[in-house]
Amino acid sequence: MPKPKKRGSNHQRGAGGQPRNVQPFSDEDASVETMSHCSGFSDPASFTEDGPEVDEEATQEDLEYKLKGFIDLTLDKSAKTRQAALESLKSAFSSKILYEFIMERRMTLTDSIERCIKKGKSDEQCAAAGLACLLCVQMGSGIESEEIFKTLGPVLKKIVCDGTASIQARQAELYSTMECLENIFTKAYQRDRDTNGVSSTHNTVLHVSALLAWTLLLTICPMNEVKKKIEMHLHKLPSLLSCDDLNMRIAAGETLALLFELARETDADFFYEDMDLLTEKLRALATDGNKHRAKVDKRKQRSVFRDVLRAVEERDFPTEMVKFGPERMYIDCWVKKQTYETFKEILGSGMQYHLQSNDFLRNVFELGPPVMLDAATLKTMKISRFERHLYNSAAFKARTKARSKCRDKRADVGEFF
Protein backbone atom coordinates (compact mmCIF):
# COMPACT_ATOMS: atom_id res chain seq x y z
CA MET A 1 0.00 0.00 0.00
CA PRO A 2 1.58 3.31 -1.01
CA LYS A 3 2.51 5.77 1.68
CA PRO A 4 0.52 9.00 1.80
CA LYS A 5 2.37 11.97 0.37
CA LYS A 6 3.44 14.71 2.73
CA ARG A 7 2.51 18.31 1.91
CA GLY A 8 5.10 19.81 -0.38
CA SER A 9 7.09 16.56 -0.63
CA ASN A 10 7.31 16.81 -4.41
CA HIS A 11 8.09 20.53 -4.50
CA GLN A 12 11.39 22.29 -4.63
CA ARG A 13 11.91 24.43 -1.57
CA GLY A 14 12.75 28.11 -1.73
CA ALA A 15 13.70 30.61 0.95
CA GLY A 16 12.15 29.90 4.34
CA GLY A 17 11.41 26.29 3.42
CA GLN A 18 8.41 27.28 1.26
CA PRO A 19 7.53 25.54 -2.02
CA ARG A 20 8.86 27.46 -5.03
CA ASN A 21 6.18 26.21 -7.39
CA VAL A 22 3.07 26.91 -5.31
CA GLN A 23 0.32 27.54 -7.85
CA PRO A 24 -0.87 31.17 -7.76
CA PHE A 25 -4.52 31.73 -6.95
CA SER A 26 -6.87 31.89 -9.88
CA ASP A 27 -10.31 33.42 -9.44
CA GLU A 28 -11.70 29.93 -8.93
CA ASP A 29 -9.06 29.04 -6.36
CA ALA A 30 -9.76 32.25 -4.49
CA SER A 31 -13.43 31.44 -4.19
CA VAL A 32 -13.01 27.75 -3.42
CA GLU A 33 -9.93 27.66 -1.19
CA THR A 34 -8.64 30.72 0.57
CA MET A 35 -11.73 32.83 0.05
CA SER A 36 -13.85 30.05 1.50
CA HIS A 37 -11.79 30.33 4.67
CA CYS A 38 -12.30 34.06 4.68
CA SER A 39 -15.98 34.24 3.78
CA GLY A 40 -17.02 32.67 7.06
CA PHE A 41 -15.68 35.68 8.90
CA SER A 42 -17.14 38.29 6.56
CA ASP A 43 -20.75 38.02 7.65
CA PRO A 44 -21.87 36.90 11.12
CA ALA A 45 -25.11 35.71 9.59
CA SER A 46 -23.18 33.07 7.62
CA PHE A 47 -22.67 30.97 10.78
CA THR A 48 -25.27 28.29 11.39
CA GLU A 49 -25.84 26.37 14.58
CA ASP A 50 -26.18 23.01 12.86
CA GLY A 51 -23.21 23.38 10.50
CA PRO A 52 -20.06 21.27 10.84
CA GLU A 53 -17.40 22.55 13.18
CA VAL A 54 -14.37 24.11 11.53
CA ASP A 55 -10.89 23.88 13.00
CA GLU A 56 -10.15 27.60 12.76
CA GLU A 57 -6.57 27.20 13.98
CA ALA A 58 -5.78 24.61 11.33
CA THR A 59 -7.51 26.73 8.68
CA GLN A 60 -5.48 29.77 9.68
CA GLU A 61 -2.24 27.79 9.61
CA ASP A 62 -3.07 26.46 6.16
CA LEU A 63 -3.83 29.96 4.89
CA GLU A 64 -0.61 31.38 6.36
CA TYR A 65 1.36 28.49 4.86
CA LYS A 66 0.05 29.39 1.41
CA LEU A 67 0.65 33.11 1.92
CA LYS A 68 4.26 32.47 2.93
CA GLY A 69 4.68 30.57 -0.31
CA PHE A 70 3.28 33.47 -2.30
CA ILE A 71 5.61 35.91 -0.54
CA ASP A 72 8.57 33.75 -1.51
CA LEU A 73 7.32 33.59 -5.10
CA THR A 74 7.46 37.38 -5.39
CA LEU A 75 11.23 36.82 -5.66
CA ASP A 76 10.94 34.28 -8.46
CA LYS A 77 12.87 34.78 -11.70
CA SER A 78 9.70 34.42 -13.75
CA ALA A 79 7.76 37.68 -14.13
CA LYS A 80 4.55 35.69 -14.69
CA THR A 81 5.06 33.82 -11.43
CA ARG A 82 5.81 37.02 -9.50
CA GLN A 83 2.70 38.71 -10.85
CA ALA A 84 0.51 35.70 -10.01
CA ALA A 85 1.91 35.69 -6.46
CA LEU A 86 1.18 39.42 -6.08
CA GLU A 87 -2.39 38.93 -7.31
CA SER A 88 -2.89 36.04 -4.89
CA LEU A 89 -1.67 38.15 -1.97
CA LYS A 90 -4.02 40.95 -3.05
CA SER A 91 -6.97 38.54 -3.04
CA ALA A 92 -6.16 37.33 0.46
CA PHE A 93 -5.45 40.81 1.88
CA SER A 94 -8.74 42.17 0.53
CA SER A 95 -10.77 39.28 1.96
CA LYS A 96 -9.44 38.80 5.48
CA ILE A 97 -7.86 40.80 8.30
CA LEU A 98 -4.26 39.55 8.57
CA TYR A 99 -2.72 42.19 10.79
CA GLU A 100 -0.49 39.95 12.92
CA PHE A 101 0.71 37.88 9.96
CA ILE A 102 1.56 41.02 7.97
CA MET A 103 3.10 42.81 10.95
CA GLU A 104 5.71 40.07 11.29
CA ARG A 105 6.54 40.26 7.59
CA ARG A 106 5.87 43.87 6.65
CA MET A 107 9.52 44.64 5.87
CA THR A 108 9.79 41.54 3.68
CA LEU A 109 6.56 42.45 1.90
CA THR A 110 7.67 46.05 1.45
CA ASP A 111 11.00 44.94 -0.02
CA SER A 112 9.24 42.53 -2.38
CA ILE A 113 6.82 45.22 -3.55
CA GLU A 114 9.68 47.68 -4.09
CA ARG A 115 11.65 45.13 -6.10
CA CYS A 116 8.64 44.26 -8.28
CA ILE A 117 7.90 47.93 -8.95
CA LYS A 118 11.52 48.71 -9.87
CA LYS A 119 12.27 45.65 -12.00
CA GLY A 120 8.86 44.55 -13.22
CA LYS A 121 6.95 45.51 -16.33
CA SER A 122 3.58 47.23 -16.57
CA ASP A 123 1.21 44.52 -15.23
CA GLU A 124 3.57 43.46 -12.46
CA GLN A 125 4.05 47.08 -11.37
CA CYS A 126 0.28 47.58 -11.25
CA ALA A 127 -0.17 44.44 -9.13
CA ALA A 128 2.64 45.50 -6.78
CA ALA A 129 1.22 49.02 -6.39
CA GLY A 130 -2.23 47.58 -5.63
CA LEU A 131 -0.72 45.30 -3.00
CA ALA A 132 1.02 48.32 -1.44
CA CYS A 133 -2.37 50.01 -1.02
CA LEU A 134 -3.83 46.91 0.63
CA LEU A 135 -0.78 46.64 2.87
CA CYS A 136 -1.44 50.13 4.23
CA VAL A 137 -5.16 49.41 4.63
CA GLN A 138 -4.29 46.32 6.68
CA MET A 139 -1.74 48.19 8.83
CA GLY A 140 -4.07 51.12 9.53
CA SER A 141 -3.04 54.69 10.28
CA GLY A 142 -0.09 53.94 12.58
CA ILE A 143 3.67 54.27 12.23
CA GLU A 144 3.87 51.02 10.24
CA SER A 145 1.91 52.48 7.33
CA GLU A 146 4.04 55.61 7.45
CA GLU A 147 7.19 53.49 7.16
CA ILE A 148 5.74 51.61 4.21
CA PHE A 149 4.78 54.87 2.50
CA LYS A 150 8.19 56.45 3.14
CA THR A 151 9.85 53.44 1.51
CA LEU A 152 7.54 53.02 -1.46
CA GLY A 153 6.42 56.64 -1.96
CA PRO A 154 9.58 57.86 -3.77
CA VAL A 155 9.60 54.77 -6.01
CA LEU A 156 5.95 55.24 -6.96
CA LYS A 157 6.34 58.97 -7.46
CA LYS A 158 9.27 58.36 -9.81
CA ILE A 159 7.11 56.09 -11.97
CA VAL A 160 4.19 58.54 -11.90
CA CYS A 161 6.44 61.36 -13.13
CA ASP A 162 8.33 59.22 -15.63
CA GLY A 163 6.96 60.04 -19.07
CA THR A 164 8.70 57.00 -20.56
CA ALA A 165 7.02 54.53 -18.20
CA SER A 166 3.93 52.64 -19.37
CA ILE A 167 0.54 54.27 -18.91
CA GLN A 168 -0.70 51.30 -16.85
CA ALA A 169 2.24 51.49 -14.45
CA ARG A 170 1.98 55.25 -14.01
CA GLN A 171 -1.74 55.14 -13.20
CA ALA A 172 -1.50 52.18 -10.81
CA GLU A 173 -0.53 54.22 -7.74
CA LEU A 174 -1.01 57.98 -7.69
CA TYR A 175 -1.29 58.63 -3.97
CA SER A 176 1.87 60.64 -3.62
CA THR A 177 1.78 64.42 -3.56
CA MET A 178 -0.86 66.78 -4.90
CA GLU A 179 1.73 68.73 -6.82
CA CYS A 180 2.82 65.58 -8.61
CA LEU A 181 -0.79 64.71 -9.45
CA GLU A 182 -1.53 68.23 -10.63
CA ASN A 183 1.40 68.06 -13.01
CA ILE A 184 -0.31 65.07 -14.59
CA PHE A 185 -4.01 65.91 -14.84
CA THR A 186 -3.56 69.59 -15.72
CA LYS A 187 -2.16 68.40 -19.07
CA ALA A 188 -5.74 67.42 -19.86
CA TYR A 189 -6.62 71.12 -19.86
CA GLN A 190 -4.58 71.46 -23.06
CA ARG A 191 -6.55 70.52 -26.14
CA ASP A 192 -3.64 70.71 -28.55
CA ARG A 193 -1.36 67.81 -29.34
CA ASP A 194 1.66 67.32 -27.15
CA THR A 195 5.26 67.93 -28.19
CA ASN A 196 5.64 64.33 -29.43
CA GLY A 197 2.75 64.71 -31.84
CA VAL A 198 0.62 62.23 -29.90
CA SER A 199 -2.96 63.20 -29.20
CA SER A 200 -3.58 64.19 -25.58
CA THR A 201 -6.37 61.61 -25.43
CA HIS A 202 -3.68 58.91 -25.46
CA ASN A 203 -3.05 59.69 -21.78
CA THR A 204 -6.68 60.25 -20.80
CA VAL A 205 -6.84 57.15 -18.56
CA LEU A 206 -3.81 58.38 -16.65
CA HIS A 207 -5.26 61.89 -16.36
CA VAL A 208 -8.54 60.51 -14.97
CA SER A 209 -6.69 58.47 -12.33
CA ALA A 210 -4.56 61.45 -11.35
CA LEU A 211 -7.58 63.75 -11.07
CA LEU A 212 -9.50 61.31 -8.87
CA ALA A 213 -6.47 60.68 -6.62
CA TRP A 214 -5.86 64.45 -6.33
CA THR A 215 -9.53 64.97 -5.40
CA LEU A 216 -9.27 62.31 -2.69
CA LEU A 217 -6.22 63.98 -1.15
CA LEU A 218 -7.98 67.34 -1.29
CA THR A 219 -10.72 66.01 1.02
CA ILE A 220 -8.25 65.69 3.91
CA CYS A 221 -6.39 68.96 3.35
CA PRO A 222 -6.67 71.88 5.79
CA MET A 223 -9.17 74.51 4.74
CA ASN A 224 -6.60 77.12 3.76
CA GLU A 225 -5.07 74.68 1.27
CA VAL A 226 -8.54 73.72 0.02
CA LYS A 227 -9.24 77.39 -0.77
CA LYS A 228 -6.01 77.71 -2.76
CA LYS A 229 -6.76 74.63 -4.83
CA ILE A 230 -10.33 75.71 -5.51
CA GLU A 231 -9.16 79.12 -6.73
CA MET A 232 -6.56 77.42 -8.92
CA HIS A 233 -8.73 74.79 -10.60
CA LEU A 234 -12.44 75.59 -10.32
CA HIS A 235 -12.48 77.82 -13.40
CA LYS A 236 -10.39 75.33 -15.46
CA LEU A 237 -12.13 72.03 -14.69
CA PRO A 238 -15.32 72.83 -16.70
CA SER A 239 -13.22 72.58 -19.88
CA LEU A 240 -12.90 68.83 -19.23
CA LEU A 241 -16.67 68.41 -19.48
CA SER A 242 -16.24 68.62 -23.25
CA CYS A 243 -13.74 65.75 -23.37
CA ASP A 244 -14.54 62.91 -25.79
CA ASP A 245 -13.85 60.33 -23.08
CA LEU A 246 -16.85 59.46 -20.87
CA ASN A 247 -14.75 58.65 -17.81
CA MET A 248 -13.00 62.01 -18.00
CA ARG A 249 -16.32 63.87 -18.27
CA ILE A 250 -17.67 61.99 -15.25
CA ALA A 251 -14.48 62.48 -13.21
CA ALA A 252 -14.51 66.20 -13.99
CA GLY A 253 -18.20 66.50 -13.09
CA GLU A 254 -17.85 64.68 -9.77
CA THR A 255 -14.75 66.71 -8.92
CA LEU A 256 -16.65 69.92 -9.61
CA ALA A 257 -19.48 68.79 -7.34
CA LEU A 258 -16.99 68.03 -4.58
CA LEU A 259 -15.18 71.36 -5.02
CA PHE A 260 -18.46 73.26 -4.76
CA GLU A 261 -19.31 71.29 -1.62
CA LEU A 262 -15.96 72.18 -0.02
CA ALA A 263 -16.13 75.79 -1.20
CA ARG A 264 -19.52 76.27 0.44
CA GLU A 265 -18.25 74.72 3.66
CA THR A 266 -15.41 77.22 3.80
CA ASP A 267 -17.64 80.13 2.79
CA ALA A 268 -21.42 80.01 3.13
CA ASP A 269 -21.69 82.96 0.71
CA PHE A 270 -19.43 81.39 -1.92
CA PHE A 271 -20.13 82.85 -5.37
CA TYR A 272 -19.05 81.40 -8.70
CA GLU A 273 -18.97 83.94 -11.53
CA ASP A 274 -19.68 81.59 -14.42
CA MET A 275 -22.50 79.68 -12.71
CA ASP A 276 -24.99 80.13 -15.57
CA LEU A 277 -22.56 78.81 -18.17
CA LEU A 278 -21.56 75.89 -15.94
CA THR A 279 -25.12 74.83 -15.12
CA GLU A 280 -25.95 75.03 -18.81
CA LYS A 281 -23.12 72.59 -19.59
CA LEU A 282 -24.14 70.25 -16.77
CA ARG A 283 -27.79 70.30 -17.82
CA ALA A 284 -26.80 69.45 -21.38
CA LEU A 285 -24.81 66.44 -20.16
CA ALA A 286 -27.65 65.39 -17.83
CA THR A 287 -30.06 65.30 -20.79
CA ASP A 288 -27.62 64.26 -23.52
CA GLY A 289 -29.28 62.49 -26.44
CA ASN A 290 -26.27 62.37 -28.79
CA LYS A 291 -26.92 59.54 -31.26
CA HIS A 292 -23.21 58.94 -31.75
CA ARG A 293 -22.78 57.73 -28.16
CA ALA A 294 -23.60 54.26 -26.88
CA LYS A 295 -26.88 53.91 -24.97
CA VAL A 296 -25.10 52.51 -21.91
CA ASP A 297 -22.71 55.48 -21.85
CA LYS A 298 -25.56 57.95 -22.23
CA ARG A 299 -27.53 56.38 -19.36
CA LYS A 300 -24.49 56.42 -17.10
CA GLN A 301 -23.64 60.01 -18.00
CA ARG A 302 -27.18 61.29 -17.51
CA SER A 303 -27.45 59.57 -14.12
CA VAL A 304 -24.17 61.04 -12.85
CA PHE A 305 -24.73 64.54 -14.15
CA ARG A 306 -28.25 64.78 -12.76
CA ASP A 307 -26.64 64.39 -9.32
CA VAL A 308 -23.80 66.78 -10.18
CA LEU A 309 -26.27 69.42 -11.41
CA ARG A 310 -28.29 69.12 -8.18
CA ALA A 311 -25.11 69.53 -6.14
CA VAL A 312 -23.91 72.61 -8.00
CA GLU A 313 -27.27 74.30 -8.52
CA GLU A 314 -29.32 73.22 -5.49
CA ARG A 315 -26.62 72.20 -2.96
CA ASP A 316 -28.24 68.78 -2.74
CA PHE A 317 -26.79 65.27 -2.49
CA PRO A 318 -28.74 62.02 -3.06
CA THR A 319 -28.02 60.04 0.11
CA GLU A 320 -27.02 56.42 -0.44
CA MET A 321 -27.10 53.57 2.07
CA VAL A 322 -24.47 50.83 2.22
CA LYS A 323 -25.37 47.59 4.04
CA PHE A 324 -22.74 45.32 5.57
CA GLY A 325 -23.76 42.57 7.96
CA PRO A 326 -26.22 43.98 10.51
CA GLU A 327 -24.90 47.54 10.03
CA ARG A 328 -25.77 50.43 7.74
CA MET A 329 -23.67 53.37 6.57
CA TYR A 330 -25.04 56.49 4.92
CA ILE A 331 -23.06 58.24 2.19
CA ASP A 332 -24.47 61.72 2.49
CA CYS A 333 -21.89 63.99 0.81
CA TRP A 334 -19.46 64.02 -2.11
CA VAL A 335 -16.44 63.82 0.19
CA LYS A 336 -17.67 60.57 1.71
CA LYS A 337 -18.67 59.23 -1.70
CA GLN A 338 -15.18 59.86 -3.10
CA THR A 339 -13.55 58.16 -0.11
CA TYR A 340 -15.88 55.17 -0.29
CA GLU A 341 -15.39 54.69 -4.04
CA THR A 342 -11.60 54.79 -3.63
CA PHE A 343 -11.53 52.07 -0.97
CA LYS A 344 -14.08 50.05 -2.91
CA GLU A 345 -11.80 50.10 -5.94
CA ILE A 346 -8.86 48.92 -3.81
CA LEU A 347 -10.69 46.24 -1.82
CA GLY A 348 -13.16 45.05 -4.45
CA SER A 349 -15.43 42.31 -3.13
CA GLY A 350 -13.74 42.53 0.28
CA MET A 351 -15.14 46.03 0.94
CA GLN A 352 -18.06 44.88 3.08
CA TYR A 353 -15.89 42.58 5.14
CA HIS A 354 -13.37 45.36 5.86
CA LEU A 355 -16.16 47.78 6.77
CA GLN A 356 -17.24 45.27 9.39
CA SER A 357 -13.84 44.25 10.74
CA ASN A 358 -11.08 46.71 9.77
CA ASP A 359 -10.46 49.25 12.54
CA PHE A 360 -8.76 51.63 10.12
CA LEU A 361 -11.67 51.73 7.67
CA ARG A 362 -14.19 52.01 10.50
CA ASN A 363 -12.23 54.96 11.83
CA VAL A 364 -12.17 56.64 8.40
CA PHE A 365 -15.95 56.32 8.10
CA GLU A 366 -16.62 57.03 11.81
CA LEU A 367 -18.28 53.65 12.40
CA GLY A 368 -16.84 53.00 15.86
CA PRO A 369 -15.39 49.66 17.07
CA PRO A 370 -16.35 46.49 15.16
CA VAL A 371 -19.68 44.97 16.15
CA MET A 372 -19.16 41.42 17.40
CA LEU A 373 -22.36 39.36 17.04
CA ASP A 374 -22.95 35.62 17.02
CA ALA A 375 -25.69 33.84 15.10
CA ALA A 376 -27.99 33.54 18.12
CA THR A 377 -27.79 37.28 18.77
CA LEU A 378 -28.52 38.09 15.15
CA LYS A 379 -31.71 36.02 15.26
CA THR A 380 -33.00 38.09 18.19
CA MET A 381 -32.22 41.39 16.45
CA LYS A 382 -35.29 41.43 14.24
CA ILE A 383 -36.84 44.84 14.84
CA SER A 384 -39.72 46.57 13.16
CA ARG A 385 -39.25 48.80 10.14
CA PHE A 386 -40.43 51.80 12.18
CA GLU A 387 -37.78 51.15 14.87
CA ARG A 388 -35.09 50.86 12.20
CA HIS A 389 -36.26 54.16 10.73
CA LEU A 390 -35.99 55.92 14.09
CA TYR A 391 -32.53 54.48 14.71
CA ASN A 392 -31.27 55.41 11.26
CA SER A 393 -32.63 58.97 11.55
CA ALA A 394 -30.91 59.48 14.90
CA ALA A 395 -27.64 58.03 13.58
CA PHE A 396 -27.81 60.26 10.52
CA LYS A 397 -28.24 63.40 12.63
CA ALA A 398 -25.39 62.37 14.94
CA ARG A 399 -23.03 61.79 12.02
CA THR A 400 -23.95 65.13 10.49
CA LYS A 401 -23.14 66.98 13.72
CA ALA A 402 -19.87 65.09 14.21
CA ARG A 403 -18.78 65.72 10.64
CA SER A 404 -19.53 69.43 10.93
CA LYS A 405 -17.32 69.69 14.00
CA CYS A 406 -14.47 67.91 12.22
CA ARG A 407 -14.51 70.06 9.09
CA ASP A 408 -12.03 72.55 10.55
CA LYS A 409 -9.68 69.85 11.82
CA ARG A 410 -8.18 68.79 8.49
CA ALA A 411 -4.64 69.89 9.31
CA ASP A 412 -3.66 66.43 10.57
CA VAL A 413 -3.51 64.84 7.13
CA GLY A 414 -1.33 62.01 8.35
CA GLU A 415 -4.08 60.59 10.53
CA PHE A 416 -5.55 58.56 7.69
CA PHE A 417 -2.79 58.56 5.05
TrEMBL record:
Q: Which InterPro entries match?
A: ARM-like (IPR011989), ARM-type_fold (IPR016024), IFRD (IPR039777), Interferon-rel_develop_reg_C (IPR006921), Interferon-rel_develop_reg_N (IPR007701)
GO biological processes: cell differentiation
Q: Residue spans with biased composition (Acidic residues)?
A: 50-59
Q: Which GO terms describe its cellular component?
A: nucleus
Q: Does the keyword Membrane apply?
A: no
| PANTHER family associated with the record | INTERFERON-RELATED DEVELOPMENTAL REGULATOR, INTERFERON-RELATED DEVELOPMENTAL REGULATOR 1
Q: What is this protein called?
A: Interferon-related developmental regulator 1
Question: What organism does the record attribute this protein to?
Answer: Corvus moneduloides
Organism lineage: Eukaryota, Metazoa, Chordata, Craniata, Vertebrata
Chain's gene name: IFRD1
